Each structure stands twice: as structure tokens, then as C-alpha cells.
Amino acid sequence: MPQSFVKSMVRKVDPGSDFIMCNTFTKHYFVSGDDNVLKAYEHYPSDDFNKVDYKKPAVKPGIELKDSHSLATTVGTSCNSSKIMVTGGRDGMIIVRN
Question: What's the predicted TM-score (pTM) here?
């Protein structure tokens, strides 16, 4: 039986990150973590997993949305047709961004 292999691509993000969401209409991915800042990265993961240099710091995000949740961001989604992104957090808030 032949084995199929999947090529995994990775990108380092800030330590303490615990939430990630892809936005298909802007082609960004968003990460949030211990600092409660929603960060937008413009480059999708493209590094080979076996060649990650753990001594180098993560690439800096292109955008930092400091008007994020005061407690952890726990859920998020985006809608292509209306071009909005919605996040929810432990603070009981829902934030809609366009």
C-alpha cells in the first residue's frame, strides 16, 4: 500500500500565542495570545518544518490591532461576501471588523 506524504509548511509566531484565524479575503492570518493583541501576518506559512531556525525570532506582524479583547480571544470567523471579520473573547465581547 503506497504512503502519501503531506508537505507541512510552518511560520514562527510570538511565544504565548493561543489563537489563530485565517482571513481569506485579505489573505492574512491573525494570531492572539498572552498580550491580548490581535496581530495580522501578511505571509502565510512557507518555511520547511525541518529547517526552522529556533534561535531566530519570529517575523514581526504587519498589523497589530490593539483594540482587541481585554481577555483572551477565543473564537473568530470571517465572511467573504460582506468582507467582515468577527472575534469573540473571554471578556464577553464580540468585535466586528471590516
Answer: 0.72
